[in-house]
Amino acid sequence: MPDWTENLPPAAKEFLDGRRLDEVECIIPDLPGIARGKAVPATKFARQESFHLPDSIFYQTITGAWGEAAGEEGFVERDMVLKPDMTTATAAPWTADWTLQIIHDAYDRNDEPVPFSPRNVLKRVVQLYRDEGWEPVVAPEMEFFLVARNIDPAQDIKPMMGRSGRPAAARQAYSMTAVDEFGPVIDDIYDFAEAQGFEIDGITQEGGAGQLEINLLHGDPVRLADEVFYFKRLIREAALRHDCYATFMAKPIADEPGSAMHIHHSVLDSKTGKNIFSGPQGGETDAFMHFIAGLQSHMPSALAVIAPYVNSYRRYVKDHAAPINLEWGRDNRTTGIRVPLSSPAARRVENRLAGMDCNPYLGIAASLACGYLGLKAREMPKTEFKGDAYDGDGDIPRTMGEALRIFDDATDLHDVLGPEFARVYSIVKDAEYDEFLMVISPWEREHLLMNV
């Protein structure tokens, strides 16, 4: 076994114990959160300190087309230097041979972080917190659907067939019987997660047909984003073993609830390790209110990042388990910003707006950025909302185009996420939105063809 494997994380070392490592997947998340990279023999990886990919991987839309974001030099596809973060080494337990995955960070030829690499964006935001003496902590919740195989985009997505031979049922939130329907898939999810060294805090049935939620333990934002990035792949692989698909679309089935990536936030004092949201006597602090206010003030500008596709906006439907506004409330799941029940030490703020379709690095970075802006400006939130927030008016963008225009004007948010990231992201998403507008939908053919 090559010497470098002696310094692997414990789970990766256990996975390889007594076995010969065959291959290493050198990967990096692109703007949508897709794993890009190269698979190399383990013997070659042992000899390389880095590898190269063109920076153009960050200029691609979800369809594989390109945004004109290359800058003044033009589309020359410069090579980036991709360096492994060995703390992210983990098994790829679904492969036929013994394979590890390792996330890499992107640098330019001057050894500066590539500013539009999503993992670098999140690292930038976390460092801004640390510069203030704060340590941000997050806990993501991942919702997704297990659906029947769908190889024809013209066909509606349908729930998967359960263990009983019946299609997965809707409106069975928290039902253990419903969870049992997906038992074989869930077993593989647990097995893959254990092999990769990930701890699942719980799996529950959500309100949609075939919709599940996985909760992760709280911790460092970059590490948690890495886990969500890895989890999306392992869940897809587990589903494929059982003749179904796992989808992280925000709204895959018209009459069912959408899938969110709720993000729980707290902030610790770097010196004392204490939660700055709670005072010495356990009460709520001004910093707690500032963070909530930051989400209220800046989340409309960040929505294009946490709701990154046209489909994302189909999730924000009244009375369908997704927020329609930026009200905040204690223990109130109808508000966009929720304060869960907790002890003072665990006091936290839950952002319920992010969709599961967002890139986890960018979704967490954008949410943290909004809270950071509130903390720095010492903003105060609106009065706590009491009652059903669906009775109020929506105050978030309703379309991708509207969200992009608001994002373009948000220079304060750009300063936190990085101006060069904001420039590239806006160009790529505009190109993607233009691609969507060129497609004529079945609704238009049905209702406009003979009636207008």
How many strands appear in the DSSP assignment? 14
Which outline best applies? Answer: globular
What is the number of helices?
Answer: 12
What's the architecture of the largest domain in CATH terms? Answer: 2-Layer Sandwich
CATH fold description of the largest domain: Creatine Kinase, Chain A, domain 2
CATH superfamily of the largest domain: Glutamine synthetase/guanido kinase, catalytic domain
Strand content: 15-25%
Helix/sheet category: alpha+beta
First-residue to last-residue Cα separation: 70 Å
**Could you report the average pLDDT, rounded to the nearest whole number?**
92
Number of domains: 2
Low-confidence stretches: none
Radius of gyration: 22 Å
* Series of secondary-structure elements, N-terminal to C-terminal: HEEHEEEEHEHHEEHEEHEEEHHHHH
What is the helical fraction, as a range of percent?
A: 25-40%
The biggest beta sheet is recorded as: 8 strands, mixed
Top-tier CATH class of the largest domain: Alpha Beta
Describe this structure as you would to a colleague:
With 452 residues, this protein is an alpha+beta fold. The protein has two domains: 3-113, Roll (Ubiquitin-like (UB roll)); 124-446, 2-Layer Sandwich (Creatine Kinase, Chain A, domain 2), CATH 3.30.590.10. Helix content is 32%, strand content 19%. The chain has twelve helices and 14 strands. The chain has helices at residues 10-16, 42-45, 118-131, 176-181, 183-196, 221-240, 286-306, 360-377, 400-408, 411-417, 419-437, 442-448, and strands spanning 23-29, 35-41, 51-54, 79-84, 90-91, 99-107, 134-148, 200-205, 211-216, 244-247, 261-269, 328-330, 337-339, 349-351. Strands 7, 8, 9, 10, 11, 12, 13 and 14 form an eight-stranded mixed sheet that branches. Strands 1, 2, 3, 4, 5 and 6 form a six-stranded mixed sheet that branches. A hairpin with a 5-residue loop joins β1 and β2 (35-41). The protein starts with 9 loop residues before the first helix and ends with a helix.
